[in-house]
Amino acid sequence: MSHTVRLDLLAQRAAAPASPRTAPCRLATYPESIVIADTSAAILEWAARHIEHVGVHRGPRLFAGPGRTATLPCWLRGALEVAVGHGRGAAGRTYDWDRINHALDQAFAILAETLAGHPADADVPTAAKTLHREVIDRWSAEPGRTAADAARAFRTAAARAEHSLF
């Protein structure tokens, strides 16, 4: 997609009235976007929109779905990684990776806490990261989980992140 076409699309989206579905988040959350979320709430909202777009897949269809990336699976952890730019950052553009990675860690923590219903903490930071990912993976792997369930979980965590004092 050329820069002119992309700018035209962005201008059209900016000029269009916000629908109730898109009003809360002003991030450009389509797979080709080079906008990278850098707060935990924005990451979680971006992930919710991404999972609504690509769905949740398991087994051999893990990388299936419209708008998917070639390297990230269509599941909760993959949606968080896409939200922070993995598979979609722009070459030649600089990003504040320290801020983004810190926000990603916060997003993982608050999502894990939301899914578990209680804090998912550990004394050692690396152990906490592992625990957060395990909680998210266990929740994701439960039979019958849908993209709507995942989006709802992301948005619940995003609302909590907006009101937390990290």
Task: Walk me through what this model shows.
This protein is 54% helix and 0% strand. It has six helices and no strands.
Quick recap of the structure?
With 166 residues, the chain is an all-alpha fold. The protein is built from six helices and no strands.
Strand content: under 5%
Q: Which structural class should the secondary elements be placed in? A: mainly alpha
The low-confidence parts are 1-29
CA distance, first residue to last residue = 38 Å
Helical segment tally? 6
Q: Give the beta-strand count.
A: 0
Order of helices and strands: HHHHHH
- The average pLDDT is 75
Largest sheet: none
Radius of gyration: 16 Å
The helix fraction, in percent, is 40-55%
CA-based shape: globular
State the main characteristics.
166 residues, 0% strand, mainly alpha
Chain-wise SSE layout:
Layout: H1 3-15, H2 40-54, H3 76-83, H4 97-116, H5 125-141, H6 147-162
Helix pairs in contact: 2-3, 2-4, 2-6, 4-5, 4-6
